[in-house]
Write a structure and sequence with these properties.
single chain; 389 residues; mainly beta; Neuraminidase; 5-stranded antiparallel beta sheet; binds 2-acetamido-2-deoxy-beta-D-glucopyranose; Kelch_repeat-containing; Kelch repeat-containing protein
């Protein structure tokens, strides 16, 4: 077990199984041309043959092989514990942790079906304990999500399956009463914008613009308290230097961090009545931006590798931001999407990165949660996750 490891966390990634299923399912539709999913660990042994193409004299140079694990960084081994599988498979699901409950929102079951409900997991009883609906008008994926410990804000996002349009409507859930309310809409819709609560204001920035591809740089904020907007309109804030969706957005030590992400995303095929997703050029990056005075973004050391699809894949433990999984730059030869299996740590004292572990398999849009007892027992964290059964 990881208890003897220097930085051993009780980290749970409860949807690993669900994610795996989801990836397997949609693999044949959308992410096929794009996925190195966990279930394809086997592909680690599948070699891609590359002809170097260069001929010296009459002699062909040796062929170069680049397998799917070429992008893995060296990482300490971590043992993981299997936990109850999620009720439904989910890709691009969102989550928020409050006490010992993890609320898991919406997401794709597969490319043609999105969920419209919340599943609730209790980390004390280790069981899935509840399910309730999201508002009919709320987005099903590519949300911006953040919680203050009671209210969960669910902002903008994509409404419906495939690569449908995004909306600018925003909702808030009171987890005590399980009532939903609506907040003032954003000036424009966004796909997967970076979202956080910082100094009493809800901040939303970046994300993908209405065409789903062009990175947005805009940044807005809205004063909120106890689930209510204190203003009628969003305020313009300093734009983020680099735009795009699927980034981790974290407030720690009163500073706002935006980590990783990508420029570009799948777009609806022109004229397709079902908004069928079509792949477009993407650039994944590991940039880290920090706002401490609210006026000027500072760029910090980048992640050990480019990483995207990590908006709910982080936790704060021991004055560090821990990020699990994601997607990185595509395979240089097969052009397939490469998923990430490492556990990264960003030390908030030194503002530097390290690779501290590896997940049981590579996972896209992992939902990470640090179980409550880490607050009381920092020395003996235990790693846990759902793994394949
Ligand atoms: C917390 O982080 C420090 C370094 O920043 C490390 O020395 C220590 O072992 C960590 N503690 C735990 C319990 O992981
Ligand atoms: C795949 O490549 C990695 C890194 O280049 C190497 O460590 C590993 O042994 C290779 N695996 C196989 C099955 O060839
Ligand atoms: C979680 O489960 C534990 C053990 O069954 C229970 O005592 C606790 O009240 C539950 N938490 C919530 C918030 O319902």
């Amino acid at each position: 077990m990881a208890a003897h490891k220097p930085l051993s966390l009780r980290l749970a990634v409860p949807l690993a199984l669900a994610l795996l299923l989801a990836l397997g399912l949609v693999g044949d539709f959308l992410w096929a041309s794009s996925s190195t999913s966990g279930s394809r660990l086997a592909s680690a042994s599948k070699k891609v043959k590359v002809n170097s193409g260069r001929v010296r004299g009459n002699k062909q140079l040796p062929e170069v092989y680049l397998n799917a694990t070429y992008a893995d960084l060296p990482a300490p081994h971590w043992d993981w514990e299997e936990m109850p599988a999620a009720p439904v498979p989910r890709l691009d699901g969102y989550s928020a942790q409050i006490g010992d409950l993890l609320y898991v929102f919406a997401g794709y079951e597969h490319l043609d079906h999105v969920h419209s409900h919340v599943d609730v997991y209790n980390f004390t009883s280790n069981t899935w304990t509840g399910r309730f609906d999201i508002p009919k008008e709320m987005a099903n994926s590519h949300l911006g999500m953040v919680t203050d410990g009671r209210y969960i804000y669910a902002l903008t996002g994509q409404f419906g399956p495939q690569c449908r349009s995004s909306i600018n409507r925003n909702f808030v859930l009171d987890t005590e009463t399980r009532e939903w309310h609506e907040l003032p809409p954003l000036p424009v819709p966004r796909y997967a914008p970076a979202t956080q609560l910082w100094r009493g204001r809800l901040h939303v920035m970046g994300g993908g613009k209405e065409d789903r591809h062009e990175p947005g740089l805009e940044h807005w904020s809205l004063a909120v308290k106890d689930g209510k907007a204190l203003e009628n309109e969003w305020r313009n804030e300093v734009p983020i230097p680099r735009g795009g969706p699927h980034r981790a957005c974290v407030v720690a030590n009163d500073k706002l961090f935006v980590i990783g992400g990508q420029e570009g995303d799948f777009m609806p095929k022109p004229g397709s009545p079902i908004f069928k997703c079509a792949r477009r050029h993407e650039v994944v990056y590991g940039d880290v931006y920090m706002l401490d005075d609210g006026r000027k973004w500072k760029q910090l050391s980048p992640m050990p590798k480019p990483d995207s699809h990590i908006e709910c894949a982080w936790v704060i433990v021991n004055n560090s931001i821990i990020i699990v999984g994601g997607t990185t730059e595509k395979h240089p030869i097969t052009k397939k999407m490469i998923l990430v299996g490492e556990v990264f740590r960003f030390d908030l004292d030194t503002l530097t990165w390290s690779v501290i572990g590896r997940m049981p398999f590579r996972i896209k849009t992992a939902l990470a949660v640090a179980s409550v007892d880490y607050r009381f027992a920092v020395r003996h964290f235990k790693l846990s996750a759902f793994s394949r059964s």
